[in-house]
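Retry 2 of 3 after timeout on previous attempt. Resubmitting C-alpha cells to design endpoint.
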C-alpha cells in the first residue's frame, strides 16, 4: 500500500513540475521586451500650448 501512495505522489510532483516549467516558459515569452520596431518614432517632441490638466 505504501508503494502505490509513493508512486502516486511522484507522479503528482512530476506533473506539477512540468506545469510550472511550462508556465515559466509562457511567462518568459509573453513578458519579453517589445522589439525596437514597435516603439514610438524618434523625433523632437512637440510642446503643448495649454497644460493637459486645467
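Retry 2 succeeded. Sequence:
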Amino acid at each position: 500500500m505504501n508503494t502505490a501512495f509513493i508512486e502516486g505522489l511522484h507522479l503528482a510532483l512530476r506533473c506539477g513540475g512540468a506545469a510550472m516549467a511550462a508556465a515559466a516558459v509562457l511567462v518568459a515569452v509573453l513578458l519579453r521586451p517589445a522589439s525596437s520596431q514597435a516603439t514610438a518614432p524618434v523625433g523632437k517632441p512637440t510642446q503643448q500650448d495649454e497644460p493637459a490638466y486645467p
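Attempt log closed. The chain has a mean pLDDT of 82.
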